TrEMBL record:
This is Radical SAM domain protein. Residues 47-225 form the Radical SAM core domain. Keywords: Iron, Iron-sulfur, Metal-binding. The keyword Hydrolase does not apply. It comes from Hyella patelloides LEGE 07179. Pfam families: Radical_SAM. InterPro entries: MJ0683-like, rSAM, rSAM_sf. One of its GO terms (molecular function) is metal ion binding.
């Protein structure tokens, strides 16, 4: 889905262990990566960390681990780009010099969660937001963490901002199977509500909210309506199919695990196409019945700002 990141680190040092995760500190040479492929509607992707403590079973980003060992241990290591804010300041200043009248489009983040648990302590994402405010980029933030609420004071100052909350299922049981370390579905739905109702609406500011159901995981029938109902708080729902099993380009080390889970949920994945279309139809029907102003977008198109 995303082009591999350029290698920008040297002298990795294991300094600490945070909740079972090995933490490596590194000095990044660059922080804004040219956005390509799936992300090519942006100028840059921005990843303050490499690796992700959430370690979701289906995560494509594991395929971009720096070595085989870390690929196999996806979720158990994180590289902290300690100097990210300083490098970002330099790179944005350079952009401004080159394009004084064009704000860059930035996607935070493509191969990590910028609000994974470590961010409580490191505050690296917060430091990047502070730097970006002076440059007012078009910014999209992708996360599954309620920690983003901490930064409402900064988020409220961006003029063109979309927040994508990842919620791939409406069933907590399914969430615990596919992404056991991640925040609960309930807390994520509360998060999107808090963001929506606490980031002030201002004239000439363009603030938008999405829920990304990517990849679409099973939702038990008894949870479906409640889940869909709660999605009406956002202006966009993004759907994406699970990685196709014959697609080797993004085969992550965690893939076996994810495939075993797909077998467990054969009632859904036995006819994947049907389940996907069925869920999409239910979303459409419900939003239409409620006159909800929510667009349903699929795949790459849904990840753009507009
Ligand atoms: S939160 Fe995102 S980046 Fe992190 S493991 Fe899950 S899918 Fe991958």
């Amino acid at each position: 889905m995303i082009a591999p990141q350029k290698e920008t680190h040297h002298n990795w040092i294991v300094r600490e262990n945070f909740s079972g995760t090995d933490i490596y500190l590194a000095q990044a040479k660059t922080i804004l990566n040219k956005a390509t492929g799936f992300m090519n509607s942006y100028d840059f992707t921005l990843n303050p960390y490499r690796g992700c403590q959430y370690g979701c079973s289906y995560c494509y980003a594991a395929a971009f681990s720096p070595d085989k060992n870390r690929r196999q241990n996806w979720g158990n290591w994180v590289i902290v780009k300690e100097n990210a804010a300083q490098i970002l300041e330099k790179e944005l200043a350079r952009w401004q010099q080159k394009f004084p009248n064009i704000a860059p489009k930035i996607y935070l983040s493509s191969v990590t969660d910028p609000y994974q648990p470590l961010e409580v302590k490191r505050q690296l994402t917060r430091s990047l937001l502070k730097v970006m405010l002076a440059y007012q980029p078009t910014l999209v933030i992708q996360t599954r963490s309620p920690m983003i609420i901490r930064d409402i004071d900064l988020l409220s100052q961006f003029q063109r901002l979309r927040i994508n909350l990842s919620i791939p299922t409406g069933s907590e049981r399914v969430r615990k199977d596919f992404e056991p370390r991640s925040p609960s579905i309930k807390s994520r739905l509360q998060t999107i509500n808090k963001l929506k109702y606490n980031i002030p609406v201002k004239a000439n500011y363009d603030i938008r909210f999405s829920v990304t159901i990517t990849p679409l995981l099973p939702t038990f029938p008894e949870d479906e309506i409640n889940f869909i109902q709660q999605l009406t708080v956002v202006d966009r729902v993004v759907l994406q199919d699970f990685h196709p099993s014959n697609n080797n380009t993004l085969t992550a080390s965690t893939r076996k695990n994810a495939i075993a889970l797909k077998d467990k949920y054969a009632w859904w994945y036995g006819n994947n196409k049907h389940s996907y279309q069925n869920f999409k139809q239910k979303l459409q029907d419900y939003f239409t019945a409620l006159l909800a102003d929510v667009e349903i977008m699929e795949g790459k198109a849904g990840f753009g700002f507009d």
